[in-house]
Amino acid sequence: MNHLRTTVAAAITCLCLSFAACEQKDLGVEFNKVTNGMTLSQVENLLGSGTDDTSSAGYGVSTGGVLDSKAAAEKTYIWKESTTTYQVVFKDGKVVQKSKAGQ
């Protein structure tokens, strides 16, 4: 009976390790699948979780001369892999631009 448990445990371990190996993504290949109009959720399904790299919203002056803050209409997310950085810009929740820097 112990032999059966050991065999089952070894099989489960191998199965888990094979699933973990499948989870690793080649960001360059997946990044090429990103297209304008995709949502952040769709992009993260391809690339994994990104890092919000949106610069501060800044300030503006209303027509009445009152200083107010502006919410950024665009959000920038980045993904890094080795020496390459992938950047995707979203406007109103949809991809409008993408770029990569590095190798």
Short description:
This protein has 103 residues and is of the alpha+beta class.
Describe the structure.
The protein is an alpha+beta fold. The protein has helices spanning 2-23, 27-31, 40-47; strands spanning 51-52, 59-61, 67-69, 74-81, 84-91, 94-101. A four-stranded antiparallel β-sheet has the order 1-4-5-6. The chain has a two-stranded antiparallel sheet with strand order 2-3. Strand 2 and strand 3 form a beta hairpin. The longest helix has 22 residues, at 2-23.
List keywords for this structure.
two-stranded antiparallel ribbon, 103 residues, 6 strands, alpha+beta
Estimate the strand proportion. 25-35%
Low-confidence stretches: none
| Tally of helical segments | 3
Rounded mean pLDDT score = 78
Q: Give the strand line-up of the largest sheet.
A: 1-4-5-6
Number of separate strands: 6
Task: Outline the secondary-structure elements.
Blueprint: H1 2-23, H2 27-31, H3 40-47, E1 51-52, E2 59-61, E3 67-69, E4 74-81, E5 84-91, E6 94-101
Antiparallel strand pairs: 1-4, 2-3, 4-5, 5-6
